[in-house]
């Protein structure tokens, strides 16, 4: 709004679209209107605890409390019965208010063992929309993504086609322009819309590596009023890419943040390896911000080769002076279930408890 008032072109969707898809309840309504399946839940924000209780009993426990303006797992709580629902409502609202300035929450059915699959879209001001394939973000902790890969090893070509079409259809129906991500949960052969991220995401680089498309450049072109220079048939996914998020956290102490001075820093490199990071030896990690200090990505012709390349890159990555998630990421890359592509959003919890 400030940019518009000062005749500055904002690189991203317009404010009306951001409001519409940023409000998760409105985004669900838009998906339903476009004929895209959504997880059963409240029609919009629940007004009070009584309404929340009615919705939870109607859809059946377990249920998920979600912040209407939420993201990154903030304001999310799983409830298995009436008692836990009543307890979690207050804390979810409080966290949502602190994080987003909006305490509104809604309720949806909690899927027990889904995959989290998202589709990158690009849309211009002329109404053209394309999707750039999928990313599997199922390896996550407290709804925070830890590993992302493309293409997903867990969905069929037919399901991928249907989900990609749904993502593009939703983007077109809401008048989206710019780069965005449409996120889904997949349970068996069914998929459900969950939200739209109206911005570039941390994991956009995964898509860049398998499509060869510079998403930041495309955002700027679209904001300048240019038409997309490719059709859906022009988008080709080649090879396999994996990204891991390196955080300054201690996995052995429930991921406690580990700010402090980096006394040693040795970055991996070589063919097919990309590292996006501001960190270096002598850098002091402050306690005030997100704990992510780097995104390590690899690309190879096959998933098996990509995993092997990531294992080597993680083994070369040395950070001392602070605790990091690198040891956990090495463990994930050597896990048998991960190697087989047999994982869901429950994967990391099972790995850590084992």
Overview of this protein structure:
With 354 residues, the chain is an alpha+beta fold. Helix content is 34%, strand content 27%. The protein contains twelve helices and 17 strands. The chain has helices at residues 2-5, 15-22, 24-33, 49-59, 82-100, 157-173, 204-211, 215-223, 303-316, 326-333, 336-340, 347-353; strands at residues 63-67, 77-79, 105-109, 115-123, 129-141, 144-150, 178-187, 190-197, 240-247, 249-250, 256-257, 260-261, 264-266, 273-277, 284-285, 292-300, 318-320. The strands form five sheets. The protein has an eight-stranded antiparallel β-sheet with strand order 8-7-4-5-6-9-16-14. A hairpin with a 2-residue loop joins strand 7 and strand 8 (190-197). The longest helix has 19 residues, at 82-100. The termini are far apart. The model has no long low-confidence stretch (mean pLDDT 95).
Secondary-structure blueprint:
Layout: H1 2-5, H2 15-22, H3 24-33, H4 49-59, E1 63-67, E2 77-79, H5 82-100, E3 105-109, E4 115-123, E5 129-141, E6 144-150, H6 157-173, E7 178-187, E8 190-197, H7 204-211, H8 215-223, E9 240-247, E10 249-250, E11 256-257, E12 260-261, E13 264-266, E14 273-277, E15 284-285, E16 292-300, H9 303-316, E17 318-320, H10 326-333, H11 336-340, H12 347-353
Antiparallel strand pairs: 1-2, 1-3, 4-5, 4-7, 5-6, 6-9, 7-8, 9-16, 10-11, 12-15, 13-17, 14-16
């Amino acid at each position: 709004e400030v940019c518009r008032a000062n005749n500055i072109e904002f690189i991203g969707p317009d404010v009306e679209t951001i409001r519409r898809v940023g409000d998760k309840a409105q985004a669900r309504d838009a998906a339903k209107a476009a004929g895209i399946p959504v997880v059963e839940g409240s029609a919009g924000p629940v007004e009070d605890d009584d309404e929340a209780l009615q919705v939870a009993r109607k859809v059946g426990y377990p249920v998920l409390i979600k912040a209407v303006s939420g993201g990154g797992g903030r304001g999310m709580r799983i409830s298995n019965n009436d008692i836990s629902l009543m307890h979690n409502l207050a804390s979810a609202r409080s966290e949502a208010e602190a994080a987003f300035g909006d305490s509104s929450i809604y309720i949806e059915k909690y899927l027990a063992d889904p995959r989290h699959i998202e589709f990158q879209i690009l849309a211009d001001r002329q109404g053209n929309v394309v999707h750039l394939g999928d990313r599997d973000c199922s390896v996550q902790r407290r709804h925070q993504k830890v590993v992302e890969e493309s293409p997903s090893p867990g969905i069929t070509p037919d399901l991928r086609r249907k989900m990609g079409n749904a993502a593009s259809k939703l983007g077109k129906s809401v008048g989206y322009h710019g780069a965005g991500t449409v996120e889904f949960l997949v349970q068996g052969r069914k998929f459900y819309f969950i939200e739209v991220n109206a911005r570039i995401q941390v994991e956009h680089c995964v898509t860049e590596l398998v499509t060869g498309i510079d998403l930041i450049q495309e955002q700027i072109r679209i904001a300048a009023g240019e038409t997309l220079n490719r059709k859906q048939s022009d988008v080709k996914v080649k090879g396999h890419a994996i990204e891991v998020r390196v955080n300054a956290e201690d996995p052995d102490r429930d991921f406690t943040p580990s700010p402090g001075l980096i006394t040693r820093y040795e970055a991996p490199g070589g063919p097919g390896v990309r590292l996006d990071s501001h960190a270096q030896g002598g850098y002091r990690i402050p306690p005030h911000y997100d704990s992510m200090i780097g995104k390590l990505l690899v690309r190879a012709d096959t998933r098996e080769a990509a995993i092997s390349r990531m294992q080597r890159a993680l083994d070369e990555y040395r950070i001392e002076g602070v605790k990091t998630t690198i040891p956990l990421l090495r463990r994930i890359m050597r896990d048998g279930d991960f190697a087989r592509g047999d994982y869901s959003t429950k994967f990391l919890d099972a790995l850590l408890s084992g």
